[in-house]
């Protein structure tokens, strides 16, 4: 039995990403008796279950094309014995949903996940009568307005979430940018990475000594090895105020040398290093 976890409820973008991963990467249909898809209320219990071998894989959103790094998910992955081996790009087509018969001009509050609200700022410019209200999740927001049965409240959620709850689309294209996408990584329990594989992308989390030029030295090493830097994000180190670690995403396909020697040098220049991901680019 293959057990795969995602955060949210049916209709969440994470569910859509999980279904797409199962079909496109595992070549399995979601009703296959060998597969169990498990939904979680939050990300931390999902990661804990992966580490405890209660699930085999988890699907985590890590970045949005409009708002950037999803910091709270990446922070949970730090210091955990997990490794991402797949990525998936999920289209994010936000819809403004209301109760059947609702009038968009009468809506005063719009519920959704904070990320989704940020991705729909122009909607609130067009309708100043609406106030954004941060809520747990996009799909849960759709469920919430059904429970409240109030035509003056609405939710921003996926097309599937609104359809599941029998809602009315008040604004079918609520998003600011067409082509908005969220990138997901599929994590497994940590296994040794393939040091001979320079074709797949890699993601590292690194903490450096608190001294001048520490990060610059790391980046110079990547330059010497001719590794293409594709992402660099700083995150506060827990229990160390105003100290930062760095998520580094890189493409080693044109590198000079090998990953094993690179890792040795990076370890010598850092106080902590974690291989977060090694995966084929899925775009």
Protein described:
Pathway: Amino-acid biosynthesis; L-phenylalanine biosynthesis; phenylpyruvate from prephenate: step 1/1. The protein is of the alpha/beta class and 283 residues long. The chain has three domains: 1-90 and 178-187, 3-Layer(aba) Sandwich (D-Maltodextrin-Binding Protein, domain 2); 93-169, 3-Layer(aba) Sandwich (D-Maltodextrin-Binding Protein, domain 2), CATH 3.40.190.10; 199-277, ACT domain (Alpha-Beta Plaits, 2-Layer Sandwich), CATH 3.30.70. It has helices spanning 13-24, 43-51, 71-77, 114-118, 121-126, 138-148, 159-164, 214-224, 259-269; strands at 2-7, 35-40, 57-64, 68-69, 82-91, 95-98, 109-112, 131-134, 153-157, 168-171, 181-189, 201-207, 228-236, 244-251, 272-279. Strand 13 (228-236) and strand 14 (244-251) form a beta hairpin. Helix 8 packs antiparallel against helix 9 (259-269).
Question: How would you summarize this macromolecular structure in one to three sentences?
Answer:
It is built from nine helices and 15 strands. It has helices at 13-24, 43-51, 71-77, 114-118, 121-126, 138-148, 159-164, 214-224, 259-269, and strands at 2-7, 35-40, 57-64, 68-69, 82-91, 95-98, 109-112, 131-134, 153-157, 168-171, 181-189, 201-207, 228-236, 244-251, 272-279.
